[in-house]
Amino acid sequence: MYLLNKTMGLVLLILSIGFQTVTAQQINDGDRPNIIFIMADDLGYGDLGAYGQELIQTPNIDALANAGMKFSQAYAGGPVCTSSRSVLMTGLHNGHTVARDNVPHYPSYLQEGDVTLAQVLKNAGYSTGGVGKWSLGDAQMEGRATNMGFDTWTGYLNQDHAHYYYPSYLDHDDRKILLSDNPILRNNYSHDILTNATLNFIRENSKKPFFFYSAYTVPHFSAPEEDEHGLTVPSTYPYTDKDWPEAAKKYAAMIYRLDKDVGKIVKLINELGIRENTLIIFTSDNGGHSNAWKGFKTNGKLKGYKRDLYEGGIRVPFIASWPGVIPAGQQSDEVIGFQDMMPTFAGLSNASIPENIDGVSVVEALKGNALPENNRVLYWDFGHTRQRYDQAVRIGDWKGIRRGQGQPIEIYDLAGDVSEQHNLANAHPELVNKIDKLMQMMVIPSPRYPVGQVYKGGPIWKKDW
């Protein structure tokens, strides 16, 4: 990770250099694994049995954790959908990546010349596919998935389209899959289509190295006109008879379907005989939503929710399984983030990566080892064009948060206060000053995200039914 003097001259210099490449040679070509990256949408840190959930059953995801490793300190790229996906795809943190918030709405966030994780692996000879919510470029735009390294993509290119689980169409590569009268008849639940597309891709590409990105949309809320609780699901099974609010049953049923389909993916790669050479990662794009039933404790002991820069908004479940390489049944307390996936996967695939990315390889952490000591700084921000602009920095076990421009910085020692209950700013003025400077230095200003100018626009995508 690099620190940048916040001057426009340096910004322009950096932007003019462009991306050069370096090659990560960590394993032999014959040992390159398939990589399946499964990401839920708005699934909280505490929503899985492996992370302490007691009411919602997630046996297949828990089995994946038992067969591999769960990370206790894994961070999403941002506290909302678009920024988190952008960090994952570009290897650049929230202050550098091209898409930094869900608003303003743009038809394309990624531009020609941006380098994505999918492009890195495709250039290394991998087949690349994905399903679900893309968010980084609409149909026909330069930032669409199939123009950014994916051989195929099925789902929602636009994130507002993804608010409908019974849509009239889904995007598929450069065309549409028409689902006539689906909003009325409700014959095709989109999550089921995404799983079928995932399984088909794995079958068709099982004889060669592949990367697959399952960006599932459950349990993200749906459009209110589609479901009175904003949680569209075909059935509340197996929680129909629970003495819970109806919305809670629906939320749990969405996670049930997600867990069941993770089981289908694992079952298929076992049947195809490729399990020993397949890395599977399961995670979430940000913290759980504040609307989730409080009985579930969606974010466990963590403070805050989606859209917050407290731990509940950005710390996510992260499970990695690769038989024979990743130790089974272990927990890693190493600090990792979505920006680390690009250099990590490049190291596993002998791929070339852009210089000046913020991520670092965490291959050693996947193997159960400690990462080398470093002075790494993790950075997030949110609300550039909203009513309040927030920033957060983590250095070692220290976390600094500023909730609004000009507001005091809060300081927390995450080693002993993961719930962020004890603000230690008054006891550490020198640390407050250091984090204040870092909050200025870690951001390359973007004309697309003018801080303090409240966005007045609305979604670009409009439903056609």
Automatic annotation (TrEMBL):
<dbReference type="InterPro" id="IPR050738">
    <property type="entry name" value="Sulfatase"/>
</dbReference>
<feature type="domain" description="Sulfatase N-terminal">
    <location>
        <begin position="33"/>
        <end position="349"/>
    </location>
</feature>
<dbReference type="InterPro" id="IPR017850">
    <property type="entry name" value="Alkaline_phosphatase_core_sf"/>
</dbReference>
<dbReference type="GO" id="GO:0004065">
    <property type="term" value="F:arylsulfatase activity"/>
</dbReference>
<protein>
    <submittedName>
        <fullName>Arylsulfatase</fullName>
        <ecNumber>3.1.6.1</ecNumber>
    </submittedName>
</protein>
<dbReference type="InterPro" id="IPR000917">
    <property type="entry name" value="Sulfatase_N"/>
</dbReference>
<dbReference type="Pfam" id="PF00884">
    <property type="entry name" value="Sulfatase"/>
</dbReference>
<keyword id="KW-0378">Hydrolase</keyword>
<keyword id="KW-0732">Signal</keyword>
<comment type="similarity">
    <text>Belongs to the sulfatase family.</text>
</comment>
<feature type="signal peptide">
    <location>
        <begin position="1"/>
        <end position="24"/>
    </location>
</feature>
